[in-house]
Amino acid sequence: MSRRRQVLLFLALATPVVVLRLATSLYPLLHTLYLSAFESSLLAGSSQYVGLRNYVEMWRDPAIRDSVSFTVLFVLGSTLLELVLAFPLALLLNASFRGRRLARTVNLLPWAIPTVVAAIGFRWFFDDQYGMFVDAVHRLAGVRPAILVDPWPARLAVIGANVWKNTPFLAVILLAGLQGVPKELYEAAVIDGASAVQCTRYITLPFCAGLLSTLGIFFILWQLASFDLVYGMTQGGPGTATSVVSYRILQLAVLWFNYGMASALSVVLFLLVLVVGVMGVTLLRRFDVGL
């Protein structure tokens, strides 16, 4: 086949994919940028060019500031706890014991439950009138904590529910990474008198460092745009204490038809994801973890 035919074949095969990606990615991004410069409201039936005013007013809105602050806490806190808990869980699932297959299957149950279903379950679990958690605390301490009514307990409850939901998935991925560590290294270390803790510190952790870093960055990016758990569990309450940026965008665009402000906030979220992604890839390449 001549070079010209190869080029034409490449263009014929690649063009539909490129056009599809531009239509589903680039056009929505550009249209969102365009809408962010307008004060557009379906309820008012008007659209007026305002330049950067939406971005300025965004930071004056206390509800949006609460959403940004909780989003940072939610994403960083959840990711850190998930990694800290998933690693020992993966070590446990990688050990040899009777019933290991059953344990691995049970481990995946929280992750297999749809997020909205899990959120509704946790909302009942923490209910201040008939929730199981509140009832247990009442039986033990004689008090009924208002978990989803007070801001900080509600924030911690949402983070805890998110960690419960996602940790098993991380553990399974780390389990696959652990199975790639050469067993000869452990055997040599045991012969040299190394303990289990030393094997974990000097063999397992270095081999899994790249995977841990990759999972950390992936989950930060993923959870920056997630809102289904908050929607099903607290709907951003009490007040705006547990509202995340993506849920605030949903409220502005779908509930209140404020497309201009919603688009401006979406652009900010996009830039945040872009910055975190670029920083993550740069750090991974700098520390030579497989990219």
Automatic annotation (TrEMBL):
TM segment ranges: 68-93, 105-126, 163-181, 202-225, 256-284
Pfam families (alphabetical): BPD_transp_1
Membrane topology reported for the UniProt record: Multi-pass membrane protein
Subcellular location, principal: membrane
Stated family: Belongs to the binding-protein-dependent transport system permease family.
PANTHER family: BLR7065 PROTEIN, SPERMIDINE_PUTRESCINE TRANSPORT SYSTEM PERMEASE PROTEIN
Name recorded for this polypeptide: Sugar ABC transporter permease
Matches recorded under SUPFAM superfamilies: MetI-like (SSF161098)
Keyword annotations: Cell membrane, Membrane, Transmembrane, Transmembrane helix, Transport
Localization: Cell membrane
Annotated ranges, domain ABC transmembrane type-1: 68-280
InterPro entries for the chain: MetI-like, MetI-like_sf
